[in-house]
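To the structural biology subgroup,

Please find below the input and predicted structure for Inosose dehydratase, which we are adding to the shared reference set this quarter. The sequence is reproduced verbatim from the submission form. If anyone notices a discrepancy with their own records, reply to this email rather than editing the shared folder directly, so we keep one authoritative version.
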Amino acid sequence: MTAANSAPAPLDRIRVGSAPDSWGVWFPDDPQQVPWERFLDEVSEAGYEWIELGPYGYLPTDPARLTEEVNKRNLKVSAGTVFTALHRGPGVWDSTWEHVSDVAELTQAMGAKHLVVIPSFWRDDKTAEIIEPPELTGEQWAHLTKGMERLGHEVRERFGLDIVVHPHADTHIDTETHVERFLDSTDSDLVNLCLDTGHYAYCGGDSVKLIETFGERIGYLHLKQVDPEILADVVKNEVPFGPAVQRGVMCEPPAGVPALEPVLAAAQRLGVDLFAIVEQDMYPCPPDKPLPIAVRTRKFLRSCGA
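Predicted structure (tokenized):
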């Protein structure tokens, strides 16, 4: 076989980026996290062109300042991120919208078109204490789905952005059953999915199957892998997500699951342009750890054709 025909098929519909998460950033301000300037310097050095905003307030929130900072590093913004608790009903709408509109305004100003929406955790994200039942009632499911449709409508009308809902460990949209129920209960014109390959595997799901079954609902990708041995212990002992991350459950590709080559190939077959943003959860982490991993990960994704 010659070198020419052993190269992977180009994934020309996939736009690869990274995010503050891959630098151990989970909060707007935390002494265990690298300064935002270092993140921007290193994500550019690692060879990425696209970034997400991360937790609102981590990067500068003044659009002119942020534009100057990303432009001088040849970076562009693919999306903003918000957390919502819409399953709690209409009473949380006003506070939710106040937060969402701040993030959406900055996202729009940066030229991005997507808002990644993460459902609220049923555990406390710092103490891991269970604060809500892991299963929603029928009424709560109705609040969640109708609330997301309303959010999708308002965000598009006011900011021209599309929402993509992110199934996430220790939230109410996590397993294959919950993800399919959510998709079956929401309007594809208003709500689509940010498929996070690591979180979906963490919760027992098959990313390729989801792409092939619900392809028209896949609006965005987060790329990450889980270490199957650590995951097995996490599942067996019911370890919360935060402590599981500290154990290294999210690992550097291609060491974990799911294999990213078939996921990317399945996404390419959809025939639409998709962002694929690398997110390797590792909060907290030593400040010198992220850059070498980011460089190797970008090299690996190039070897896949992305």
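Summary notes: The longest helix spans residues 138-159. The radius of gyration is 18 Å.

Regards,
Lab coordination
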